Amino acid sequence: MKKESYIKFHEDISGKNTNFLIGSGTSFPFIKTLSLGENKPSLEDLLTDTNLDTNAKYMLFYFYYHNWIVKMFMHDEKTEDYKQVFENYKIFIRNGLNILRTEGYQLPKRMNIFTTNYDTFFESVFDNVVLENPLNYFNDGSRGFIDKYINIENYHLNVAHSGVQDNYKKEIPSFNLIKLHGSVSWQDTSQGIKIEYNKENILAKYEELKIYIEQIENIIDTSNTKEEMIERINNLATDVGESLLLDFHSDYNDLAIINPTKYKFSQTVFEQHYYQMLRLLSYELERKNTILIVVGFSFADEHIKEIVGRSLSNPFLKVYIICYDLWQRHKIEELFAGFIDNKIEILPKIETIFVSIFDIEDMSLTFTNSNHEEITEYEYDSNGCNRVYKLPLWKEYNIYLSSENENENDDSEIIAEGINAFEISSYCIIDDSGDEYFFETSYPKGDIYYLNSLMGSQTPMSDGEEDE
What we know:
Elements: H1 3-13, E1 17-22, H2 43-47, H3 54-67, H4 80-101, E2 110-115, H5 121-132, E3 137-139, E4 142-143, E5 148-150, E6 160-161, E7 170-171, E8 174-179, E9 182-189, E10 192-195, H6 211-222, H7 226-237, H8 242-252, E11 255-257, H9 268-285, E12 290-295, H10 302-311, E13 317-322, H11 326-335, E14 344-347, E15 352-358, E16 363-368, E17 374-375, E18 379-380, E19 386-392, E20 397-403, E21 413-419, E22 428-430, E23 436-438, E24 440-442, H12 448-455
Parallel strand pairs: 1-2, 1-12, 2-8, 3-8, 12-13, 13-14
Antiparallel strand pairs: 4-5, 5-10, 6-7, 9-10, 9-11, 15-19, 15-24, 16-17, 16-20, 18-19, 20-21, 22-23
């Protein structure tokens, strides 16, 4: 990362109403995304398909609970993946607190974290950090002691420390945690949304269903189309007792979470709270001198996407979107066309990508764009086996193959034309033996590591020009 990018970022957020929109990418690899594999439908695609039978949907909810939700109860704290993600969150919170401590006395020392994650990484980190320094305030929107209930009004607080003799009043740094899609620690009750951090998962109660997990995974792996996948899951569901699935679904619905479906709500109280949280997000983004920093978030939630899009009319709003890869970058540029570089800054800044491919004898490659610029020069990697081409980040690429042998015909073979940077790695060259050699691309990735380097109290070391 360049030093000037780090300095500019800190200058931009200093003294501002700073908000974060955190998605599931920040809890990876401990918690997987909802992808079911390359060229496969997502879990949400399956659950929202109208051809999926009711019992089959309940089976997929069990599959979702078994493979995703259970990990969010944080019972695997000794795994390396957990430790890695926990440390990422901890560095993020520490960096935020350091920034807040440098704010002037006349400014609120508060940041808002809006997240769609159900897991309790933030809560676990809050407990850990407050032991290091008690003069921090972490607000999950709840009040109570033994019985804690969520209320949207609990977020509008400024917390101050006045000293032993009450002879001064100093606001302490605070974070508001707003969990837009609910939490595994939330339970919908007649008195409101109750927080139970020590709640146990219900897998043991439905041990009979566990035998179907491997069968569902096999269906996903071996089906060629979404239609085939749904038909096979429908057939599998007929082997399961309907009463068992109904009982599971009833217990599952006690979780106050938004399911990965288009029809998200089964609880009126939670639906009301969801829209209150969305209004809070909208309100914060309409304020003066506001910053929104987005990381690990895909904008799949239509309501959130609409609120962010509408807020771009606020002349006092600046949005940073940290994109993990070139594909997400492309989707963001499509989604918010007209606002990029004006209201929205996509990070990390990428001016160059590196394209490598196995060094085939007599191979000559030419990369061009629509302006007829072309690049043929390359270097070898450290092993001397692959060519590495340093390319500008163009809007589109053409790739042509010819022979370096002067005796060969000069005709070029078209490998690809009019493709985006993220598509390059899906193309290959086939040698005379029929072996396929695919292109590989590398560039700086945008994730919570990158965000932590931006927010860090020390100027980050240079990343170099590429990220392997």
